[in-house]
Every structure is written in C-alpha cells, then in structure tokens.
From TrEMBL, chain A:
PANTHER family: ABC TRANSPORTER ATP-BINDING PROTEIN, DOXORUBICIN RESISTANCE ATP-BINDING PROTEIN DRRA
Protein name in the entry: ABC transporter
Entries under InterPro entries matching the protein: AAA+_ATPase (IPR003593), ABC_transporter-like_ATP-bd (IPR003439), ABC_transporter_ATP-binding (IPR050763), P-loop_NTPase (IPR027417)
Alphabetized Gene3D superfamilies for the sequence: P-loop containing nucleotide triphosphate hydrolases
A GO biological-process term: response to antibiotic
The keyword 4Fe-4S belongs to this UniProt entry's keyword annotation: no
Subcellular location: Cell membrane
Membrane topology: Peripheral membrane protein
Pfam families assigned to the protein according to its UniProt record, in alphabetical order: ABC_tran
Organism encoding this protein: Bifidobacterium criceti
UniProtKB/TrEMBL annotation, chain B:
UniProt-recorded name of the protein: ABC transporter permease
Regions crossing the membrane: 52-78, 90-112, 132-156, 163-185, 205-226, 233-253, 273-291, 343-360, 366-388, 414-437, 443-464, 501-523, 529-550
Keyword list, A-Z: Membrane, Transmembrane, Transmembrane helix
Upper classification of the organism: Bacteria, Bacillati, Actinomycetota, Actinomycetes, Bifidobacteriales
The keyword Transmembrane helix is annotated on this UniProt entry: yes
Keyword rRNA-binding: no
C-alpha cells in the first residue's frame, strides 16, 4: 500500500508550532499513519483525539523525533525534525511514559537528571526541580525513589520532567490518567497559564469532555489520517464534541447481545462449571 | 415510564454468538501450559535474528549433548571391564546430585523462574491451584532444557547393559525420575524463596548471596584438589572405597536417589530399590505440596512494601561534572548501587581473587595475580549489555536529545570510577595474598600486575561502550531479578562469549609485547616496560571504544529504543 496522496502536500508552515505534511508510517503490513498533514498554531491548546489504533501515538512519536517516518516531513517552529533533530527536541517537552523513566532515582534526582541532560546547570536544574515538585504536590516525596510512587505521582513526575527546561511546546500523552482530581486541577491551571504565556500544549486524550473544556483546537484522527481539525467549536459544529467525534469516526453500533454473557439472573450458573477453584 | 424487559429489548440486538455450549468452562488442560510455553518460545525466536541465531546455537549444543549421551552410553555398555560399573556407581549419584543442586542454584540466580510461566500471570483465570501447579511443572519438564536432559539420560541407558536388563530398565525409569524430581525440587525452591524474600532489600541481598554460593560451589572441586599437600594424600582421600561410600551417602538424598535405581536393580537389592523410590516419591510429593502452599501464601499475603526508600539531596548528581555526561554518570552510579542484577557482578571479581588465592597455595603465589587479571576483565561485563540493563529508561536520553558522545563519556566515566576502585581493591587483595609487599622487587612486580589489570579494565570499558548499542540481549526486570525473559537463555549464551572474546582481543598489543619479551628471554628483567605499554593500550582502547560507540549509538539510537521496547515486552 502506497502513501495516500494528500492535497495539502506542500511545504510545512514555519510559523506553526508543529507542521506536518504527508507523514506516513507502516509497521509490517499495517499502515499506522497514512499521509497525515496537520498544522498546530503557536499558543494553542491542541487536543489529538481518535479511537484506539487511529495513529495518534505514532504521529506524536514521529513529530517529536522518536520515530523515523517512512515518508513526509514535520517541523517544530520552522525547524525540520529530521534535519535538525537535537534543536527540535530542545524546543519540545515530551512527557515520557511511566516505563520510560529511571525509577531507581528519587523524584528530585530524576528532575535534575532531566534538566542536566538538556544542558542546564545543576544549580538551575535543582531550583526548577524544587519549584516543579511544589507545583505538583510532590515536595514531601522529593527524596523518595520513584519506584515507590503511586501511579498518579509517577504521572506527575513524568510531566514535570517534560517541563523542567521550559520548552516552547509541551507534548503530553494522556496527562491526567490516574491523577487525582486535586492534582489534576492544579496541573490544568499550570498548563492554562503556560498557554497564556505563549506556550503550546499538545495533548492526546480519549476524554472528550476534557478536550472540549480545555483545548482551543482539536484534531480528530482516524485510520492514520486527520478527518477534522481546527478550533474546537468549528470541529464540534454546534454539537457535543463526543457526538461529533462518533459521527466522524463511525464504528458505533447498537448494543450487541452476546448470548452467553449474562449476570446470572436467569439462574444459569455456567461459572460454576469449573468448580473448586482456589 | 416503561422499561423494556430483556426479551423485548433484545429484539433489535444482534446475537453475536452461538448458544451456550454444554461445558464452556472446562478445566484448563495440562497440555495447554506446555503448548503455551512452546508458543512463547517459538514466538520469541521470530522477534530478532539474534534470538534465532542463539536458538540455533542452543539446538546444536542440545543435539551435541544428546548424541554424546547416546555414543557414551553405547561405548560404556560395550566395555567388559568391571571398572566401568564401579565408575558409573560413583559418578552417577555424585555427579547427578551435584548437577541437580547446581541447576537449582542456577535457576534461582541466572535463569530464574521463567517470567511468563509464573503463577502470577495466570492469577486472573481462576485455575485451581493443583491444576496450575501441575501445568507449570509439566511446562518446565517439557521445555528445551528438560527435554534435552531427559533424552540424554534415556539414551545413556545402554551404559548399564553389562549390569543386566533390569539395570537398563531401571535406568529408563531413573531418567524420568531424575527430570521430575529435579523440576519439582527447583520449582519448590523457587516458590519458597519467592515467598521468603519479599522485600526489595531482601531480594537484592539474596541475589548477591546466591551468586557467591554458585561460584563457591562451582569451584569446590578445584579448590579441594588444590588443598591436598601431596599426591598421596589426594589418592587416599579419593580412593575407590571412599568415593563409593560418599556416592552411597549421596544416593540416600533426594538429589542422588533417582540415580541409584539402576544399581539397586543390577544388584537385585529390591528393598533398597523400594526405599530409593520412596525417597523420590516423598520428595516429589513434598515439593508439590510446598509449591502449592507457596502459591496460596503468595495470593493471600501482599508483597512487602519498601516504605519509600529515601535519599536526601541529589546524591551523586552533586559529585559528578555539571554537564549532560555528568548527569549520565551520576544516574548510572545511582542505578548500579540499587540494581542487584549489576551490583552482584562487582562482587564476583573479589570472590575470584579469593578463590585463586586459595588454589594458589599449591600452585604458586603468582596464581593469585591470574585471578586479579581475570577479575579486572569482569568489571565491564554488565556494561557490555548496559543499555539493556537501562531498559526503557534510555528513552529519557532520546527524548531530551542527549548527544551520543555525552552518553558514552558519561557511562565510561562511571565505569572507570567503579572499575578503578575495584581494580585497586583486587590489587590490594592480591598483594596481601601473594606476599608481594615484602621486597622492593616484589612491589615492582605487584605494581606491574596492578597497572596491567587497571589497563585491562579501561580497555574492556572501551569495548563495552562500542558493543552495547549493537549486541544486546534481554535482561530480567529490575523488579524480578530472579526471572528470565523468554528466549533470553539462547542470546545470553552467545553474545557474552563474543563480548569476552573482544575483551581479550583488545589487549593483544600488550600480549604481543609480553610474547616478544618472552621470546627475547628478557621478560623477567624487562617486565616493568609493560606498565606504560599496558596503560597506553588501555587508554587507547577506552578512547577509541567511546568514540566508536558514540558513532554507533548516534546512528542506532532509535533502533536501540525499539529493541529495548521489545525486551521490556519479554519481561512482562
């Protein structure tokens, strides 16, 4: 299967925070991203939504320099990601996944490590680390190894490592998953403030309500292509964003009745068939 | 308001399944575990060329074992010399017991419980304990190692031909008894230690103790031989009568009993035969019960909570250079301290020097220096697979756009520090054990060895920095250092051998000078010239290795990341 021709396959827009043209990626026989083109304006709070396997994560890993596309081009504030990868990465704050950090470091050490890796001085990294720990309610756990953190705390420390170098663009994959409501509200405040100062936030999420409430722009991705993109109001077209999303990606069907799946109200105790379990 | 009943509501629903089968939840067949085990093994082989190469090497070795057993069995069986029967009578229970104990320790330490075929991974399926235990044991027996041992023992049965048909029949029975007993013993031991050692600190400590124990046990034969003052004392201690008595004693242990069956049958000692069978049956039953008990215990008792191990300040990050490479060094040093999989590798060299010192009592004091050199070669062994030990955490460097040369410099710095301290400790140990501190000329010899050892440390770090972005094999996860990812065994056998070969090759310039001095007959007077030669060799190899490693890592960074992702999947 060849990359699908894209009408917008021309030079990326250097004024955009992120500009992608004709991104294509195939894993064996499966086409994950199929000629995807998208512009993400500077200073926007951009949501990437789509069903599972739509190509959101692959798109993010490609434009952040973590995966080489088979075709296409991506720029970060006018810098070609694959011609000047190091420069592009310095402009981005990509939130690592929980398994992509060194959990035998303490929270503070992890932040200093993230800062120093990006060329920051130790003193500056330590000072910013303290600020971030306070902002994320992690000060008390600063000297505790990350492996002993809860899922929510780990998510927060991952987010903090993406912010320590004050990037121009923050890229966050499901940033609020497993985070408690109080911390979640605090993080949202930080992100909104960051956007207000000219930063760009790109989040990938399945929670439509969150995207509708927080994002200024949204792109709906399905089968490796953008099916709708723009300001949230325009994409929603006067409807609830979730309904609009379902219309755009399709796939919803009437509740299927699975004959053998019952709650036992009919008195059939098939579960007991195995008997004597443990 | 009306609510639709299920029958009316179902009108517009699509039935997606056939009517309920008679018995949809029949108990899981034992064969399912065996099939699953092989499906995972073959699936792993398809993941990478290296896994496939390793698998082929393993198959060749296994075939070699089986063919050797067959040939050995036939050759021994055709011998009319009664001494063959005596040797078998001594070797089988002694060697067999030793092999089973060693296999259990290796299981605990190196191979560990297979990370996929563990009770944890079947916890959600509600399989009853008895069936689960039986299934996992069957999967263990039907694995590549189990089948190789079983086939080898079965094909070795002709060795008992001269002892009579009953002995051969008993040897066939013995083969099955050996494999079942050994599997049950190792399962029970693994389960027991998993239950006993639950805290992270305990696991780390246990891991190191096991490693020390394995090395000591492996070296017992050579240390015993070396401990005799004269050949006569050796001959007396190892007389046929003594050895037979020791073998008989081992035959009454669970490890040796399965090997005694053919000899009992040959002697017509059916009472002893029954007693040995009883020991085997009792051992199997006890191990089976213990494994099930551990399964229940682990389910009903939560893992020990570490309580949040804390470290004030930024620790190593304060002491390393204020740069990206300094951050890499600091991170690596922090991890080495807290990672039992790697920290144990720094204990081994010390142990090796001590073992060589003991053995050197008869061979000569120079022997301890051989141990020191060997120990120096081992410091960079974990670094040769260092990126795999980092795991997906390496992604942070890629995310941050860290330059490959910063990574290599940082890693090399950390290992030079650890290896340098290690080499110094080994040097002091060797000096004390060899008595080289008595005269200035002894000192010069000692220092020459010490510098050569340190140079070798540098050179091996250079090699490690070059090979670790290219030759990687899966490691156990940090949380389960006793476990082994599927397919690791094959790769782990092949790649370290290649790495160790490179560790030797890299010091060839120094070796060439030694050979040259030896041929010229001036080695004993000119040996101090090795100090600058070895140092230059080590520093050059370190510099070149770091530079080359940076080039390779720069090009392969994303490929390394994908490989680490695959390895992480194997640890699940």
């Amino acid at each position: 299967m060849q990359p699908a021709p894209d009408a917008r396959l021309f030079a990326p827009d250097p004024h955009m925070a992120v500009s992608m043209r004709g991104l294509f990626k195939r894993f064996d026989e499966k086409v994950a991203v199929n000629g995807l083109s998208l512009d993400i304006p500077v200073g926007s709070f951009y949501g990437l939504v789509g069903p599972n396997g739509a190509g959101k994560t692959t798109t993010i890993t490609m434009f952040t320099g973590m995966l080489v596309p088979d075709a296409g081009v991506a720029t970060i504030l006018g810098h070609d990601v694959w011609m000047d990868t190091a420069r592009a990465k310095r402009l981005i704050g990509l939130m690592p996944q929980a398994d992509e950090i060194f959990t035998t470091l303490t929270g503070m050490q992890l932040l200093v490590y993230a800062g120093m890796l990006r060329g920051m001085g130790r003193a500056e990294a330590s000072a910013r680390g303290n600020d971030l720990l306070a902002a994320f309610d992690l000060t008390e756990s600063a000297n505790v190894m990350v492996r002993d953190y809860s899922a929510g705390m780990t998510k927060k420390i991952c987010l903090a490592t993406a912010m320590i170098h004050s990037p121009r663009i923050l890229v966050l994959d499901e940033p609020f998953e497993a985070v408690d409501p109080i911390s979640s509200a605090n993080i949202k405040d930080i992100l909104v403030e960051y956007v207000a100062t000219g930063g760009t936030v790109i989040i990938s999420s399945h929670v439509m309500a969150l995207v509708e409430r927080m994002c200024t722009h949204v792109a709906v991705i399905n089968r490796g292509q953008v099916v709708a993109a723009g300001p949230v109001d325009e994409v929603a077209a006067g409807e609830d964003l979730e309904e609009r999303f379902l219309q755009l990606v399709g796939g919803r069907h009437g509740a299927a009745r699975i004959a053998w799946l019952d709650g036992g109200a009919n008195g059939e105790q098939s579960q007991d068939a195995q008997g004597g379990t443990q | 308001m009306s609510v639709a009943t299920p029958s009316t509501a179902s009108g517009d629903r699509s039935a997606t399944s056939a009517p309920v089968a008679q018995n949809p939840m029949a108990p899981v067949a034992i064969g399912t575990f065996v099939r699953l085990r092989w499906a995972i093994t073959t699936g792993t082989m398809r993941r990478s060329v290296w896994q496939l190469v390793g698998f082929i090497v393993t198959v060749i070795i296994a075939a070699g074992c089986v063919i050797s057993a067959l040939v050995g069995g036939i050759v021994l069986g055709m011998q009319a010399d009664p001494l063959v029967g005596v040797v078998l009578r001594i070797a089988m229970p002694l060697g067999g017991s030793f092999a089973i104990v060693f296999a259990i320790l290796i299981q605990l330490m190196i191979v560990g419980e297979n990370s996929t075929m563990t009770p944890d991974n079947f916890a959600i399926y509600g399989i009853d304990d008895r069936r689960l235990t039986t299934g996992l044991i069957a999967a263990g027996i039907a694995g590549p190692a189990g089948l190789t041992v079983l086939a080898s023992l079965l094909l070795f049965a002709p060795a008992y031909l001269r002892l009579g048909a009953a002995a051969v029949a008993a040897a066939v029975l013995s083969a099955f008894a050996v494999i079942i007993t050994a599997t049950l013993l190792s399962k029970a031991t693994l389960s027991l230690f998993s239950v006993l050692v639950r805290s992270q600190t305990g696991k780390n400590l246990f891991y190191i103790i096991m490693m020390v124990l394995i090395i000591v046990i492996a070296e017992i034969p050579s240390m015993t031989v070396a401990s005799f003052d004269s050949p006569d004392a050796f001959a007396t201690a190892f007389s046929v009568a003594n050895l037979t008595a020791i073998a008989s004693a081992f035959g009454w242990t669970p490890f040796g009993a399965p090997f005694m069956l053919p000899f009992d049958a040959a002697a017509g000692a059916w009472g002893r035969f029954a007693l040995h069978m009883l020991i085997i049956a009792a051992t199997c039953a006890a191990c089976y019960w213990l494994t099930m008990w551990c399964l229940r215990y682990a389910r009903t008792h939560a893992d020990a909570v570490s309580g949040g191990k804390a470290e004030k300040g930024i620790g190593m990050f304060e002491r390393m250079p204020d740069s990206p490479s300094g951050a890499v060094s600091a991170r690596l040093l922090c991890m080495l301290r807290r990672d039992p999989r790697q920290s144990v590798l720094f204990v081994m060299p010390v142990l090796i020097v001590i073992i060589f010192a003991v053995m050197g009592r008869q061979i000569g004091s120079w022997y301890v220096w051989t141990g020191m050199m060997l120990g120096c070669m081992m410091f960079a062994m974990s670094e040769a697979n260092g990126l795999a030990y980092d795991g997906c955490g390496f992604a942070m460097e890629v995310i941050c756009g860290t330059r490959a040369i910063d990574d290599r410099r940082g890693r090399a710095r950390a290992y030079v520090l650890v290896g340098g301290i290690g080499a110094f400790v080994l040097f002091v140990l060797a000096m004390v054990c060899s008595g080289c501190w008595r005269t200035p000329s002894d000192w010069l010899l000692g220092v020459t060895f010490g510098i050569c050892g340190f140079s070798w440390v540098l050179a091996t770090i250079g090699v490690a920095e070059t090979v670790n972005p290219v030759l990687m094999y899966p490691t156990p996860s940090l949380d389960k250092p006793f476990s082994t990812p599927q397919g690791r065994g094959a790769a782990q056998m092949f790649i370290p051998l290649l790495q160790m070969l490179l560790f030797v090759v890299v010091m060839l310039p120094t070796v060439a000078v030694i050979v040259g001095l030896g041929i010229g007959g001036v080695l004993h007077t000119w040996y101090p010239v090795l100090i600058p030669v070895a140092l230059a060799n080590g520093v050059a190899a370190l510099w070149l290795g770091t530079w080359l490693g940076a080039k390779l890592l720069g090009r392969r960074e994303l490929k390394v990341l994908r490989t680490l992702d695959d390895f992480a999947a194997l640890q699940q």
